[in-house]
Amino acid sequence: MTETSSQKDISVIVPCYNEEEVLSIFHQRLSAVMQKIGMSWEVVYVNDGSRDQTLTAMNVLANRDKHVSIVNLSRNFGKEIALTAGLDHARGTRGVIVIDADLQDPPEVIADLVAAWNADVDTVYAQRNTREGESALKKLTAWMFYRLIKRLGNKVVIPPDTGDFRLVSRRLVDNLLLLRERHRFMKGLFAWVGFPTRAVLYDRAPRTGGKSSFNYWSLWNFALEGITSFSVLPLQIGTYMGLIISILSVLYGFWIVARTLLFGNPVAGYPSLMAVILFMGGVQLMTIGIIGEYVGRIFNETKNRPLYLVEKYQPASE
Ligand code: UDP
Ligand code: MG
């Protein structure tokens, strides 16, 4: 293959939101690894509307290093979309690596990913051995989420304890980019595409600087996104609850009739009446809420807006 200036074997995609503190050390460690691997490469830094000096830091890197491409989004769009923007701008002809900027995914693991990669494998994902520096509650919720999504996945197998950190082939990226939905649960979309995969274990490090932009509320919403984009099972909950409640009601109805015939009607039952009414009210509201989650997503998808807008794209100079 003849090398033209813009052709790369591998693109490394790094979505960044307020990462000024870690960006230069990240880039140092990344370049050291990429140099050793010995394929031609670029790194695509996506500035996802950072409020700090992340963009300046990126420009500094680009001036010093010809491997640096910058995609500056017009505002903050969230990690999943920033990552998509990076994939759209990746020029790597052989493969693409997705990694977080905060050094929780150690760049050194990239060497292992590449080593485990061959022509028969389209995805080499980095699977967490440990989660250092994360609370027991976060570990527990993450564990529960991965197990739940596994049961709901509808044949789409999302590997547990795996983030977005992975190496994927050009063929996989091209197919992934066909999926333009607005509610993007990237891990799920990667898994939806399929093709042969392989895992490499690694130890997830604690964040080096800055802070995680995901609190429990946003993690909960992220989990909802994951569930609603891959399963309509929550919609069926209403059906089955209704069915069970109807059967129980009929039985209870017979019991009331029989009891009245046998023992007369002493007119009591205010507490049980209240309990039933409140319970039914709760079930109905919850079911409407679940339907609402899906209707809202249909609404967002039908608007068909572009996923993101780019303020400026500056490709790597070599
Ligand atoms: N990120 C982003 N846009 C956002 C939030 C996060 O591009 O709106 C990036 C962030 O800079 C980092 C990666 O996504 O490179 C993962 O974010 P974070 O470390 O906050 O998530 P966590 O590791 O806690 O899941
Ligand atoms: Mg992180």
UniProtKB/TrEMBL annotation:
Location(s), subcellular:
Cell membrane
Protein name per UniProt: Glycosyltransferase family 2 protein
Q: Which SUPFAM superfamilies match?
A: Nucleotide-diphospho-sugar transferases
- What InterPro entries does this protein's entry cite? Glyco_trans_2-like, Glycosyltransferase_2, Nucleotide-diphossugar_trans
Membrane protein topology class? Multi-pass membrane protein
Q: Does the keyword Glycosyltransferase apply?
A: yes
Recorded GO CC terms: plasma membrane
Keywords, in A-Z order: Cell membrane, Glycosyltransferase, Membrane, Transferase, Transmembrane, Transmembrane helix
Locate the transmembrane regions by residue number.
240-258, 270-295
Report the GO molecular function annotations.
glycosyltransferase activity
In terms of one coarse class, where is the protein primarily found? membrane
Identify its protein family. Belongs to the glycosyltransferase 2 family. GtrB subfamily.
Domain Glycosyltransferase 2-like intervals:
11-176
